[in-house]
Each structure stands twice: as structure tokens, then as C-alpha cells.
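Bumping with the actual sequence this time:
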Amino acid sequence: MTKVAIFGADGRMGKLIAREARGKLDVVQTFDAGDDLLLDPSVQIVIDFSLPSAWNSLNALISRTDVALVSGTTGLGEQERKLLEGWITCRPVFYSSNMSVGIHVLGRLMELASGLLDDSFDRELIEFHHRKKKDSPSGTALSLMEKWGGEKVYGRLGNTGEREYGTVGVHAVRGGDIVGEHHLYFLGEGERLTISHLATDRKVFALGAIRAADFLAGKPPGMYTMEDMLG
């Protein structure tokens, strides 16, 4: 089995990946930011589900190695993106803000609908997550918005006037224990199209990360995504 280390192991996703990996991956080590960061030389892949603020520690863990990296950490800023750019020069990196296969299909359906519908259809996205989620909009929502293009309007307040042509509305709902929902709306005259994805169990993200680790094993340096894994 592929030998892995989990970074962010004390978080909900880290614990879930460790549990779901039994019988699928060999978890050699687990880490969190601030731990004694010395990677076992047998580790082939580091799986990261942490926070952007922990990425300096992640960099310290992997920087003196060519170990592969699978990451599902969201809310990345400019500094973290620069780290990603550096990492892919010397190791294979699989990055996805959402490890769900269903979300990948949602993106494909979104692109298909966008190509078939003309610009008279207004476009909006609403995403739902649990009350403890720190970043907003979700990384998945931002990735989906990149496919749509156009000027983004993040929520609306007060006298905003009529909707401007070509804008895309993005709205975030936070509450309860919602695992994750993303709803895409194409709003036309006399009709509307809705495409949705609902995650009902965090296990789907853990299984996606485990599948990504299997996919990444033995790959040359570079950036890999769900598009590469699923085709």
C-alpha cells in the first residue's frame, strides 16, 4: 500500500481520512502545525487538510524532500498560492478545494449548460456550509465561479439598483451542521434552470482524497486536479 502522512490530523477531516484509509493506505505518520516536523523517509505522499495559516509548517515538513502532496485545504491567499507554485516544480501536487466526484460532475454540467444557454440567462450561485466554516465564499464556489467569468457580486444590501448585465451573484449561507451544498441558477425570461450538489456525509471528501493519493503515486512533478484524475 502507498505510505502516507496526514497533515492536519487533529481536524475533523484529518481524523476521518485516517479512519477511512484503513486497508487502503498505510498511514505512517500524522502531524499538526507546531508538531515536531520530521518526515519519515518511507512516506510517499502527504495528505493535507489543514488551514492556510498552517501552510508554513506544511512547507517546513516537505521542503527538504520530493514527497508528493494531496491537499484539500481551502481559503488560500496569495502567499499560499506562491507556495503551491514552488511545490509543483519539484513534486507532484494534487490540489482540489472539493474532493467530491459529484462536484466535479456538477462543474461539467455547469459548463454544458453555459454553452447551451445564451447570455440572456442571469447566473447566481448559493452555497451552504456548517456554522464553523471559516472562509466565505467556499473554495468550491470560487472554483465554479472561475468557469462562469464575469464580474462577481457577493451578496446584495441596500439600494443596489437593477441587476447589471453580465454579473454573477454569489451568496454564502452558514449554519448548523451542513456538510456542503452548491446550487447553480440560470435565470431566464419565463424559465429557470437549477443544478445542485448536496454532500450529506464528510466521508465523500475523505474517500476522494484517498483516491487522489492512489492516483498521484508515481506521477512526475506538476499540478494535478480532479479533471486529471477523472478525465
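The C-alpha cells above came from a reply further down the thread. The first strand starts at residue 3 and ends at 7.
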